[in-house]
Structures are given as C-alpha cells and as structure tokens.
Amino acid sequence: MKEIFRRRARYLPLPERANDANRRVPDNMWISCSRCHELIYAKEYEDNFKVCSKCKYHFRLSPRERLAILLDDDSFVEHDERLCSADPLHFAAGDVRYVDKLEEDRRTAGTREAVTCGVGAVEGQRVSIVVHNSTFRGGSMGVAVGEKVARAIDRAADEDIPLIIVSASGGARQQEGVFALMQMAKTVAALDRLRERKLPYLSILTDPTVGGVPASYALLGDINMAEPGAFIGFAGPRVIEQATKQKLPADVNTAEFMLQHGMIDLVVPRSEMRATVSTLLRLYTARTYAGGQGAGYAALREMAVVDARNGRHAS
Ligand SMILES: [Zn+2]
User: Fold this and answer.
1) How far does residue 138's CA lie from ligand 1's centre (Å)?
2) Where are the extended beta strands (E) located within 123-258?
3) How far is the CA of 42 from the centre of ligand 1 (A)?
4) How far is the CA of 257 from the centre of ligand 1 (A)?
5) 125, 281 in Cβ contact below 8 A?
6) Is the pLDDT of residue 181 over 90?
7) Which ranges in the chain are annotated with CATH 3.90.226.10?
8) Which of 165, 198, 211, 301 sits at a 20 to 30 Å CA gap from 139?
9) pLDDT tens digits, 216-271
C-alpha cells in the first residue's frame, strides 16, 4: 500500500497544495517540512504516510492517497465520477469566469469535482466513502459536491453499509451562492435517512475543515475524529475576534482544542486511522454479541487494549 506514494512523476520542492503529480520526490532527496522546516528524508516521509517524523505535521493528501491509506487494495469503485458543477449563477469576478476556474481545477487537481465518492472495503467491511480534494476549489461545497455527498449517504442506506466521509474543505462555495448553502440542508436530511436505518457514519476531519462543511455533515458523525493538528472550525480566529471583541487562545481551531472541548471524539494519527476505523466499524455493525464473545465484544476488547497502551482510559 505504501507504494501508492512512490508511483508518480517526481519533483522538488514539495508544494503543499499542488496536485498529485507534483507531490512526488526522488527517493534520495530531502523534503523541507512546511511547519518545522526540518529536512526529512523523502523515503521516510513517504513510508510515514506523508507525516513529518520531526514534528508530526500531517501533510495534505490527495483523494487517491487517502483512499489507499484507508481502503483495502483494489476495493474502491468510484460512483458519480462525471457529476460536476454547472455554474448555476453564471458567476464571474471581473474578467475571471467561474466556469474557467472549474476547468483549470479539473486539469490541475486530478478530479472533476471537490469530492470523490464510491464504495470500498476497510479490512473486508464494505463502506460508502466520500473524500474531499482540498486542491479543487479549496475542497469547497457547491451543488455538485452536495449532490455527490447526498448520493453517497443514500447509497450507504440503500446497500445497508456504513458511511465514511473524509473532509478537507474551505466551506460552502461562494461562486454558487445560496445554492451552495442549500447543500447543508440537503446533506443533513440525507444523514437523517441513514440514521433511521441505524447505519453508522464515521466522520474524519482533516486539515483544513471549515465553514459550511463542519456546520453540516462533517460534525454529524456517530464518531467525529480528526487528524492531529488539523485546522477545524466554522470561522477563523480573526473573524471570531472581530465579532466577539475577545482574544482567543492561539490553538482555538486545532483538532486537539476541539477534542478538549468536546467538539470531536478522537484525534487519530494517520498511521492508526485505518485500524481505528476498522475497529469502530466492527463495533457499530456487530449485530449479535453471542454471550459477550461476538465481533462487537472482540472489537471492544481490542479498543480497550489500544487505549491502555496509549495511556488513555475510557470514561
Ligand atoms: Zn515538521
């Protein structure tokens, strides 16, 4: 699976927001971490799922890399691949037309829209999955994104399988105005249908997840988890300070602050994400306990062992 990080063309320096192709580096090269500025050996960086070994900074991933980390090899089947924005407002800012920006992003971001949706398996457990692409219009939610997310939720309900959404988004897409905002209601209504079917939804928030996405589906998971250091929130600290006239803590928008204040349930390092997701899926989907010896019981025991190893205690 780690080979996924070594397959494409290779360039330096590593641009944090660049498309897939520009993320490759030669194996014998060094990468400068964009947070601590230490040099990291490229092979070590890629073997480490693009996490800085010095400061644990989690670099942003493309949908393809994210799916490779989470899902079983060759299990992913994409749905609604061709569904993309139709520019409902015929938006232009000066001479710059929104349709042209969309076309540009399609060429550079590696996907036709800001989310990739489909069905795959996590350690043999089928799931409906959505992954944001933060390099496509900042991962923002327009009409097509909302429709794709809602369809992915309905697919989970129809196929009686769990839902996973990996968010990385700048919020509602301003070029689609109120139509983008309407996607918040549409996706939340779809999640309600999933809840009626008693199917689990695991939400994974990655850097950054802000605006209308955490204000709708990203914080409505049965479990909401985030990667370490991820920037999360409805608005940035400057906007909140201007509105409330109060000084905020420097780390107010971090995953760790959100965990401390009960906004999310878990902060999970990238290297542990797949195992954690798999365990949670087994916990939520175990329909029989067979006198305490069923799959749910085994998963619960496994989590307790992981918690004890990490010095955490269940509350
Ligand atoms: Zn670093």
Assistant:
1) 23
2) 125-132, 163-169, 201-210, 223-226, 232-233
3) 13
4) 20
5) yes
6) yes
7) 60-284
8) 198
9) 999 999 999 999 999 999 988 888 999 999 999 999 999 999 999 999 999 999 99
